[in-house]
Amino acid sequence: MRPRPQPAQEFLPVDVTTLVHDPILGTRRLHWPDEAACAAWATDLATRPGLHDAFLELHGPLGAGKTTFVRHLLRALGITGRIKSPSYAVLEPHQVGDLVISHFDFYRFADPREWADAGFRDLFSAPGLKLAEWPEKAAGQLPLPDLRLWLHPLDDESRQIEVQAFTPRGLALIA
Ligand SMILES: Nc1ncnc2c1ncn2[C@@H]1O[C@H](COP(=O)(O)OP(=O)(O)OP(=O)(O)O)[C@@H](O)[C@H]1O
Ligand SMILES: [Mg+2]
Asked: pTM of the entire structure?
């Protein structure tokens, strides 16, 4: 018998092997025909009480709509003014009332030692909403997310979305 071809892991841009073993408690599949559909889902999610202490990972290629989704979610939560992408700063903090929101983009995150130095460990152990783009780049540092959103852009500019829940809080968020 011929040997089975091995997965070409060396061609993957990031180590995704750590992502596949966490037990998924529930899954939702969505289709966003346009950005308005993204906004509508984000606006609904913003009304869920469990969101205020949740951690959401956002996966998808460049331009998939991760920041766009976060902007709609933050607007729905009451953030006014400009919502910058954290692609350069790694973290953009927000606050509305008592709610602390940490919006991360780990695309440029290279050195795991930066994790403690930047105070991210403290942020993740404190109350508040945490949103992370490119979490793969900080794999090994991040706690288990409540929700993992996979954004797949389709040829017609719409988005196929898979939402995976890893905690009871995450499950409640997509119920
Ligand atoms: N259905 C949709 N949902 C979300 N965004 C959409 C949709 N259709 C079109 N867009 C557009 O796609 C673009 C997504 O850009 P965005 O910066 O949000 O991507 P990103 O995933 O954060 O990329 P990066 O990995 O560079 O951070 C925006 O211009 C947005 O208007
Ligand atoms: Mg982005």
From this structure: 0.89
